[in-house]
Write a structure and sequence with these properties.
Elements lengths: L4 E10 L4 E3 H5 L6 H8 L3 E3 L7 H16 L8 E5 L11 H9 L5 E5 L5 H14 L6 E7 L10 H4 L5 E10 L3 E9 L7 E2 L11 H5 L6 E2 L1 H23 L8 E4 L4 H11 L10 H4 L6 H11 L8 E8 L3 E8 L3
Parallel strand pairs: 4-5, 4-6, 11-12
Antiparallel strand pairs: 1-7, 2-3, 6-7, 8-13, 9-10, 12-13
Helix pairs in contact: 3-4, 8-9
Bound molecules: acetyl coenzyme *A.
The site of acetyl coenzyme *A has 24 residues, from helix 2, helix 6 and helix 8.
Length: 330
């Protein structure tokens, strides 16, 4: 009997309406459109409203994915949500909030915390359950609202991120689906990208709040170095697992953090630029949402067709990384 693959039978994405351009940011901090575009490739990003939680972004993305999959929420047996910006601190999981919101009463639900690698980690977990026959219909979500954890006076971080959500519905198939995934972590780099206060190690204090210790602090140069290597290593590892050469990929979708990270990595790998997808100019770094958002757009634009081999690769805080090869099935 041939191996069961976790096939993506529906994909959807959603971004909040409000747009922040580089010009808007230049009115808030000491920066310019020219600096942001030349150092990151980002022109604008979408920012959620103050009372719009990450589940509010995820639900419209999920609705589109379920419609394409021709499934109802009650058909789902598992919901795995990659997010590092849940609706509520501590608990409940955003997976449970989503389960209630969409009426997926037959599904187990949990969150995966792997920052910008969240979707790849969640996809990899879901894939195991389908391959071993435990579940048939699984919803995988990548959604984040890092705008709520930014220091809007820190020009080194506030220009980089945007909010968004993406969702994929997986079901077993013998021909199409996730051929392999590869996950990794460099825990020794945890301090390079963190929110220092507000957790159990350092609960938020009044001084911490005044000094913005509840917002993202980043060593940009270290993260940049890590990211370029993570893209190359993880894509190489997952291609080797599938015994596929990089030339066989129809499209490569790396995490949309910074066009310079993408350009450095693909140049070093000798990968053709015209087969690399990038939409970060319009959305910035949407963390766990970036890969499903790009997969959805690339599919709608006709850049991915049924039978194509697609490479995906994420990297982020942790430091975490991961990659996958998908034989596209819709
Ligand atoms: N506008 C103008 N000047 C700025 C800005 C800004 N927005 N931000 C920083 N600068 C200044 C710095 O203060 C510095 O000035 P100085 O020389 O007077 O001290 C100068 O620009 C150079 O700063 P660098 O940090 O050296 O700039 P660099 O070229 O490294 O680019 C950047 C910074 C874009 C953050 C880059 O390091 C990067 O992209 N790193 C990776 C970040 C990333 O992708 N993070 C997300 C990971 S995924 C996740 O899990 C969240």
């Amino acid at each position: 009997m041939s191996k069961l693959l976790a096939n993506i039978i529906g994909i959807g994405s959603y971004i909040p309406e409000k747009v922040f351009t580089n010009q808007d940011l230049a009115r808030m901090v000491d920066t310019t459109d020219e600096w942001i575009v030349s150092r990151t490739g980002i022109k604008e990003r979408h920012i959620a409203e103050i009372n719009q939680g990450v589940s509010d972004l995820a639900v419209p993305a999920i609705t589109k994915a379920l419609t394409q999959a021709k499934l109802s929420a009650e058909d789902l047996e598992l919901i795995v949500v990659g997010t590092c910006s849940p609706d509520y601190p501590v608990f409940p999981s955003t997976g449970c909030v989503i389960q209630d919101r969409i009426g997926a009463k037959n599904a187990a639900a949990f969150d995966v915390s792997a920052a910008c690698s969240g979707f790849i980690y969640a996809l990899s977990i879901a894939t195991q359950y389908i391959e071993n026959g435990t579940y048939k219909n699984i919803l995988v979500v990548g959604a984040d609202e890092l705008s709520k954890s930014l220091n809007w006076q820190d020009r080194g971080t506030c220009v980089l991120f945007g909010d968004g959500a993406g969702a994929a519905v997986l079901a077993p198939d013998k021909t199409y689906g996730v051929l392999a995934t590869h996950l990794g972590a460099v825990g020794s780099g945890w301090k390079h990208l963190l929110v220092p206060e507000g957790g159990t190690k350092q609960p938020l204090t009044k001084a911490g709040l005044e000094n913005k210790k509840n917002t993202i602090q980043m060593n940009g140069k270290e993260v940049f170095r890590f990211a370029v290597k993570a893209v190359e290593d993880s894509l190489g590892a997952v291609l080797a697992k599938c015994n596929i050469k990089k030339e066989a990929l129809a499209l490569f979708i790396p995490h949309q953090a910074n066009i310079r990270i993408i350009d450095h990595a693909v140049k070093h790998m000798g990968f053709p630029k015209d087969k690399v997808y990038a939409n970060l100019d319009r959305y910035g770094n949407t963390s766990a949402a970036s890969i499903p958002l790009a997969l959805d757009e690339a599919h709608r634009e006709g850049r991915i067709k049924k039978g194509d081999l697609v490479g995906v690769c994420g990297f982020g805080a942790g430091l975490t990384y991961g990659a996958g090869i998908i034989k596209w099935g819709i």
